[in-house]
Design goal:
alpha+beta, Alpha-Beta Plaits, five-stranded mixed sheet
């Protein structure tokens, strides 16, 4: 069986994503998809972070960040950058940073 391709990507989500439990839901979704990394609120009112995981699961997570988010959030757009293949995880779980 071929090894699953691991990828890492940076993200930033714009819209009403602070004060709506966006980070908590992001962490929950990441854990459900077995994705590692982190997220945090920015001073610009966005949520940014890094994802690491199997390419297909990262695809599901990107979709979730663009279209779903937390129940009270209103996502305008999500940006993804610096996507690259990685040999191994650099994070042990998915954390909310402050």
């Amino acid at each position: 069986m071929a090894a699953k391709k691991l990828v890492a990507v940076d993200f930033e989500v714009f819209g009403k994503v602070q004060g709506v439990f966006f980070r908590k839901h992001t962490q929950k979704q990441a854990k459900k998809l077995d994705i590692r990394g982190w997220c945090k609120n920015t001073d610009q009112g966005t949520v940014e972070g890094q994802l690491e995981g199997v390419e297909q699961q990262i695809g599901f997570m990107k979709d979730w960040l663009e279209k779903t988010g937390s129940p009270s959030s209103r996502i305008e757009r999500a940006e993804f950058k610096n996507e690259k293949a990685i040999e191994d995880y650099t994070f042990s779980g998915f954390n909310i940073r402050h």
